[in-house]
Amino acid sequence: MRPLTQVSRRVRQNSQFPVSIWTSLAALLILCGPWFPAFAQQQSAPLRRMRLDMVFSTSLFRSASRNDAIAAGRVCASMFGRTHGFQVDPTVEAVDDVAEVRKRVLDGSANVLALDVVEYFELADLTAVEPVFCAMRGEGSVPPRYLVLVGAESGISSFEALRGKTTIIHANTGANLGQSWLDALLYDGRLGRAEHFFRSVEVVPKASSAILPVFFGKADAAIVDEGSFDVSKEMNPQVGAKLRVLRASPPLAEGLLCICRGQIEFREKLLEDLRDLHLDAQGKQILMVFRFSRLAPVDKPELEQVRELWRKHNLLSRPPGKAPLASLSGPETHSAERGEEQ
Fold first, then answer.
1. The CATH number of domain 48-139+253-303, selected from 3.40.50.300, 3.30.70.270, 3.40.190.10, 1.10.10.10
2. How much is the pLDDT for 226?
3. Which backbone phi and psi does 275 adopt, to 5 degrees?
4. How would residue 265 be classed by pLDDT, with cut points 50, 70 and 90?
5. Which of 46, 72, 110, 263 could form a disulfide with 104 if both were Cys (CB 3.0 to 4.6 A apart)?
6. Residues 53 and 90: beta-carbon distance below 8 Å
7. What is the mean pLDDT of residues 129-148?
8. pLDDT at 342 over 60
9. Backbone phi and psi for residue 114, each to the nearest 5 degrees, phi listed first
10. Domain segments of the chain as ranges
11. What whole-number distance in Å separates Cα of residue 82 and Cα of residue 73?
12. Mean pLDDT of 107-113
């Protein structure tokens, strides 16, 4: 090995910097030397740890596998940790029963919840559960609307004219808001229960299973979300020509992302990342697992509008003489069964 002085001399000879610069650099290295071990130790210090205990309701992803949903949750937690320098320790579980969600909230083993909107209403007595985002579908900036579709040449010109007709409802999630909206229309019109008003009512898991029978004249009406109808028209323009919209609902939030108050560190950072999830390529893939396009902040008036539909649905569908659910609010303005006598 060559002596250090020879190496130094050769460096100075081959360098364009003046000797004074090399002298200054050498002095700086000597002065900073004692700090290097501390710096290296700081670099290897453990990351801040963050706990995320996610519970997903299977009601939200009927077309996806449980394992895919769990994997998507883990990737989402990993992305958050990578972005902000946290060591995220996630637990992700998919459950079939809202009672299990309630149990997890009460024992503190869940702090992020993905629920359908009716499940959220059923947990309304748990003040720790805070809805923060509504799951959106398609390119719209508001939650989807539901539509009553009939044949363009069917001669059906009003909702009341569907009495004695066949109707098929597409249930996007376990909340089945198409059914709740239908019952709210019956309730407001004092038309009685669905099973008395219609000749038959069928609930199907696919929009095409509701739309195509009306298209081919095998059913009188279909209730589907607007996004699914738009997709059907894009795939087959004849669908738009042969079917028309008889009634349209207000925007109905179906899927909610909730957090448990006081149980999440770095809350604002997490909410900001979830709001912008659709702007990231990997984030888009996560949302697609649940057939959502993005997450939008909850609009409280819209949410209360859905609660009112659900209230009317429950008032209409409960057995005669049975008291309304404790979680329902607002006075009952007229008998839900009055229309059955017509």
1. 3.40.190.10
2. 92
3. -60, -35
4. confident
5. 110
6. yes
7. 88
8. no
9. -110, 115
10. 48-139+253-303, 146-250
11. 14
12. 93
pTM, rounded to two decimals = 0.77
Mean pLDDT for the stretch of residues 233-252: 95
Query: Out of 57-61, 141-145, 169-173, which region has the weakest mean confidence (pLDDT)?
Result: 141-145
The two beta strands, 221-225 and 243-248, are unpaired
C-alpha neighbours within 13 Å on the C-beta side of residue 98:
16
Domains 48-139+253-303 and 146-250 agree in fold: yes
In the chain, where do the E strands start and end?
A: 48-57, 86-95, 112-116, 129-136, 146-151, 166-170, 200-204, 221-225, 243-248, 255-260, 294-297
CATH of domain 146-250: 3.40.190.10
Length of the chain: 342
Tokens, residue 217: 């004249």
Secondary structure of the chain: what % helix, strand, coil (to 5)?
45, 20, 35
Nearest CA among 137, 140, 175 for reference residue 57: 175
Rounded CA separation 191/339 (Å): 4
Q: What is the pLDDT of residue 7?
A: 39
pLDDT, one tens digit per residue, over 190-233 is 999 999 999 999 999 999 999 999 999 999 999 999 989 999 99
DSSP code string of 280-303: SHHHHHHHHHTT--EEEE--HHHH
d(CA 33, CA 147): 73
Torsion of CA 264, 270, 271, 275, to 10 degrees: -150
Q: Coil, helix or strand for 311?
A: helix
CA atoms within a 13 Å half-sphere pointing along the CA-CB vector of 211: 25
User: Would you state the structure tokens that stand for residue 283, as one six-digit string?
Assistant: 């984030």
What whole-number distance in Å separates Cα of residue 14 and Cα of residue 115?
A: 69
